[in-house]
Amino acid sequence: GQNIDQPTEMTATEGAIVQINCTYQTSGFNGLFWYQQHAGEAPTFLSYNVLDGLEEKGRFSSFLSRSKGYSYLLLKELQMKDSASYLCAVLDSNYQLIWGAGTKLIIKP
Amino acid sequence: DADVTQTPRNRITKTGKRIMLECSQTKGHDRMYWYRQDPGLGLRLIYYSFDVKDINKGEISDGYSVSRQAQAKFSLSLESAIPNQTALYFCATSDGTTDTDTQYFGPGTRLTVL
């Protein structure tokens, strides 16, 4: 079966750095997405990786290793508004998005 | 104005009632999707449509039906609602023309079935 694993919850301090990991086992791979979702709101697109390596976008970076079935989202200079759930999703061989359950990130002052 | 809108935003109904959730988009995208989200679970695909004449079942289509009335409109129906269909429902769109085919989500409909 297809599976995406992420930690359920993480806590970090304002101004610090946090890394959210995602491992996947899917039938095929056509890219990996990270979305941010504030409580009760819609998921919003953060990043897309299809090749191995690091993609940097401001305070957020996303890394992919296809051979290891692994990705992480790195958030720097954490702000209180970064408190949200972060969803990892993989586009499989049928171009269907398979979603992880999300990681709830709690930022403390 | 929001690019993807959903109505209603909240709905409480009773077991056995027929419910329709509506989604409209002004992004000009061909592809539209319906998901449900339950606490502790990932988003699960109910139905998707790649154009007006194309409708496909997703992972959990049982108990649901859809209608693609136009490129901009995609409705989800629960013919006879049951309590385990209580969830947060999201509509999403994508343009289908880029490699990434990023999906953009509506604000969600919170449905409670008593």
How is the secondary structure organized here?
The complex is a heterodimer of chains A (109) and B (114).
Chain A: E1 3-5, E2 9-13, E3 18-25, E4 32-37, E5 44-49, E6 53-57, E7 60-65, E8 70-75, E9 84-91, E10 97-99, E11 103-108
Parallel strand pairs in A: 2-11
Antiparallel strand pairs in A: 1-3, 3-8, 4-5, 4-9, 6-7, 7-8, 9-10, 9-11
Chain B: E1 4-7, E2 10-13, E3 19-25, E4 31-37, E5 44-51, E6 54-57, E7 65-70, E8 73-78, E9 87-94, E10 104-105, E11 109-113
Parallel strand pairs in B: 2-11
Antiparallel strand pairs in B: 1-3, 3-8, 4-5, 4-9, 5-6, 7-8, 9-10, 9-11
How many runs of DSSP E, i.e. beta strands of chain A? Answer: 11
Count of extended strands of chain B: 11
SSE series of chain B? EEEEEEEEEEE
Assembly annotation: heterodimer
The coarse silhouette of chain B is globular
Q: Give the helix tally of chain A.
A: 0
Q: Could you tell me the radius of gyration of chain A in angstroms?
A: 13 Å
